[in-house]
Design a protein that fits this description.
This protein is an all-alpha fold. The protein contains two helices and no strands. Helix 1 (about 1-30) runs antiparallel to helix 2 (about 35-75).
């Protein structure tokens, strides 16, 4: 379970970094363009990835707190 979640977190980090690079490139290349639709689409995708990352991170944190509580009771 931890390996699966760790893998998902690593994957999300890579996707976020890739989209940040894509967004930077789009902003630079569209600086003089009248419409910025591509930039907005990339920003939306990045926002969704960040929300997913935060959700997974929170799940891991909750699971860790639950595990710590079980360990404390066992002692």
């Amino acid at each position: 379970m931890h390996e699966e979640i760790g893998g998902r977190i690593a994957e999300l980090k890579r996707e976020i970094e890739a989209l940040r690079g894509e967004l930077r490139h789009a902003v630079l290349s569209e600086a003089s363009a009248p419409g910025k639709e591509a930039t907005y689409a990339i920003a939306d995708r990045l926002d969704r990835l960040i929300v997913e990352f935060m959700r997974v991170r929170d799940e891991v944190g909750e699971a860790g707190r639950g595990e710590a509580g079980r360990l404390a009771k066992a002692e």
